[in-house]
Design goal:
The structure holds 2 protein chains of 2 kinds.
Chain A (H helix, E strand, L loop, with lengths): L17 H29 L3 H7 L11 H8 L1 H34 L6 H13 L4 H11 L17 H14 L2 H9 L4 H12 L1 H17 L2 H6 L8 H10 L1 H6 L2 H9 L7 H37 L1
Chain B lengths: L21 H30 L13 H4 L6 H8 L1 H34 L3 H16 L2 H12 L5 H9 L15 H26 L3 H9 L4 H12 L1 H13 L6 H7 L7 H4 L2 H12 L2 H29 L7
Helix pairs in contact in B: 3-15, 4-8, 4-11, 5-8, 6-12, 11-15, 14-15
Classes of the chains: A mainly alpha, B mainly alpha.
């Protein structure tokens, strides 16, 4: 079932009738359009002239184009770059260490000869059933650990996901032959060596899938920033986008570029609507570009994980 | 997981090594070291905070701090359930989730069936790719997209689409709660359907083609085959996925209800759910005790539901159960 979305037996007597096939195709062309149009709208508004937008409203094709929004963002590039930096660091660090730590946990509990594999499985998977709730979670990271406004509070909560460990454990149990491990032990290899030189190389597919899912989790997260990061703290790009949309003042209050421009030209009014959309484009851009390459692995990871459990 | 529930979830390490089991430690001690990093994170992130649930039974304010705040027993819960708030948020949470579950099921299976029926593999792949794209966008991004349509003065709906139908008055979308029971399921399905369609499609492709061949020889129409072969044979997958969602019926997707609505207070009647309520009580009102009480209420009921739904999944398809 792993390559489900790509494999398909040859068509013969099972084909639907031509009219039915045509209808289905039309439906999906419409639906695909619905999926793509909102993105086109954002793109188009970001390249529009602010005053025209305020009068005529958003439109799919800009009535009057203007690069003013991107011009402003470019002036303010330090803030956006900083946010990108935070997001990239958090994502890369979290994905690598998280995937490694999870694999290191999944391996022992997949070994049937390990006496306490059941206990530690339970410890991991109980977190899927019950979580203490928002308030204790918040207290933990602010009062007890004192990590608010640091980059670590953006990494730690998402580091270990019970569901991913489950997927890895299933993979280790089913796809790493016991005989291989046993013969390695007979040859005198220690557990670290077995893990690094036998288990990991065989597990590249599941590591890649989990790694990509982790990347998605980290890159799209804004909730942790909402809870723990103030205006002066390390802000990921998603949270910056959120702030820009929420608060018209946010753009003007938090931009050194704006202050500089205003000093030179007191009549400058921030093209806020178009700048917001430009910010959205800047935030969405990487995902849309990387998406075609990643989606195959995502689908594999999802189908392996959820269907086989 | 073969252990019984007598195990104390806080128990982590066995007793200190004696002379007899030095061999065990030499052989398996490595495993404990391997698991240590993840265990540490779990301890800090998941297990220690469970102790903090006691905040629900205290009346906390900033001046006295948490540990010195007075115990008030069930007072927070009494207050929580005495107002209509708790009824509203529970109703909203459950009703929305029911709608989401139904939509995920019907639209997901329908899409999967249609993908399976398409003659051109290339076309199917293209549409699948596009259909899956919204799943990868964050809720912040989706909020921008929705805003592009629903912005009161300049959004596409008020300025372009509604006038096409002859409606000239502008609807203040972010102030009128009546539309959101329609908007939120639409947005949620649009974003999430890729996930379910792919899973159902994987299940459909796994069905043995011989069934269809035999049915066609017997003269069964395509529709008949769908209802008599395809759907019954993916029943286990349908039930597992649906039960997993039912288990989480007390939990709402925070991003959907907080971001897409732009947390507009005017909409709370139809958009406030338990998760956003807890957040508001914590961050805006600052009533830690109340927020903790609502959170504990959600966690306990949620746990029972997940536990029961997992038992049901076990009956149907044991390997798909969580434990």
């Amino acid at each position: 079932m792993a390559s489900a979305a790509t494999k398909q037996p040859a068509y013969s007597i099972h084909d639907v009738s031509k009219p039915a096939d045509f209808a289905i195709n039309v439906f999906f062309w419409i639906y695909s359009l619905i999926c793509v149009i909102p993105l086109i709208l954002i793109l188009s508004v970001s390249f529009s002239d602010e005053r025209t937008v305020l009068i005529n409203g958003f439109s799919l094709i800009p009535t009057k184009t203007s690069l003013a929004a991107y011009d402003f963002l470019l002036n303010d590039w330090a803030n956006v770059a900083k946010s990108y930096g935070v997001s990239i660091f958090v994502t890369v660090f979290g994905t690598i260490f998280g995937t490694l730590a999870m694999a290191l946990y999944a391996y022992p509990i997949s070994r049937r000869d390990f006496k306490h594999s059941g206990l530690f499985s339970f410890i991991m998977f109980f977190t899927l059933l019950y979580n203490a709730g928002l308030v204790p979670f918040y207290m933990m990271y602010t009062s007890v650990l004192g990590l608010n406004n640091t980059v670590w509070v953006l990494i730690l909560p998402l580091l270990i996901q019970g569901f991913f460990v489950l997927v890895m454990r299933t993979f280790f149990t089913n796809s790493v032959p016991k005989e291989l491990i046993e013969s390695a032990k007979i040859d005198g290899a220690g557990e670290w060596r077995i893990f690094a030189q036998i288990v990991l190389p065989l597990s590249l597919p599941v590591l890649a899938s989990i790694g990509l899912l982790c990347t998605l989790n980290y890159w799209n997260d804004w909730f942790l920033s909402l809870l723990f990061i103030g205006n002066d703290g390390p802000m990921g790009i998603q949270y910056r986008m959120y702030k820009a949309l929420l608060d018209l003042q946010f753009l003007s209050n938090n931009s050194s570029a704006y202050a500089a421009i205003l000093a030179q030209n007191p009549n400058f009014s921030l093209p806020s609507e178009t700048v917001r959309m430009a910010m959205a484009v800047v935030g969405i851009g990487p995902i849309v570009f990387a998406y075609p390459f990643f989606q195959r692995y995502f689908i594999k990871g999802l189908t392996v994980g959820a269907v086989k459990g | 997981m073969n252990q019984t529930t007598q195990l104390n979830p806080g128990l982590k390490k066995p007793q200190a090594p004696t002379k007899q089991n030095i061999g065990y430690w030499r052989q398996y001690g490595v495993f404990y070291i391997m698991m240590a990093p993840a265990l540490l994170v779990l301890l800090l992130n998941n297990y220690l905070p469970m102790v903090g649930s006691i905040i629900a039974f205290k009346n906390v304010n900033y001046s006295t701090g948490i540990w010195d705040s007075p115990w008030v027993g069930w007072q927070n819960f009494n207050y929580l359930f005495s107002t209509t708030d708790s009824w509203n948020i529970t109703r909203n949470t459950i009703l929305y989730n029911v709608v989401f579950i139904i939509l995920n099921l019907i639209v997901g299976v329908a899409f999967a069936l249609m993908f399976n029926a398409m003659r051109s593999r290339r076309a199917a792949k293209i549409h699948q790719t596009i259909m899956f794209l919204p799943y990868f966008l964050s809720w912040v991004v989706i909020t921008y997209l929705v805003f592009g349509f629903l912005s009161p003065e300049i959004g596409l709906m008020n300025k372009t689409i509604l006038p096409m139908f002859g409606v000239t008055e502008e609807i203040d979308w972010y102030s009128d709660p009546t539309w959101w029971p329609l908007i939120l399921p639409l947005v949620n399905t649009w974003k999430g359907i890729g996930y379910y369609a792919v899973l159902y499609l994987a299940a459909i492709i796994g069905i043995d083609q011989e069934y269809y061949e035999a049915a066609t020889l017997d003269g069964a129409s395509k529709w008949r085959q769908v209802f008599s072969i395809t759907i019954p044979l993916i029943r286990p997958v349908i039930i597992v996925l649906t039960m997993l969602q039912i288990g989480r019926i007390f939990y709402a997707d925070f991003g959907l209800f907080y971001q897409v609505t732009r947390n507009a207070g005017a909409l709370y009647d139809t958009t406030l759910v338990i998760d956003t309520y807890v957040f508001q009580t914590l961050r805006v009102t600052g009533d830690f005790g109340m927020a903790a009480a609502a959170g504990l209420y959600q966690a306990v009921v949620g746990f029972v539901l997940i536990f029961v739904s997992n038992l049901i999944i076990r009956r149907i398809s044991k390997e798909d159960a969580l434990f």
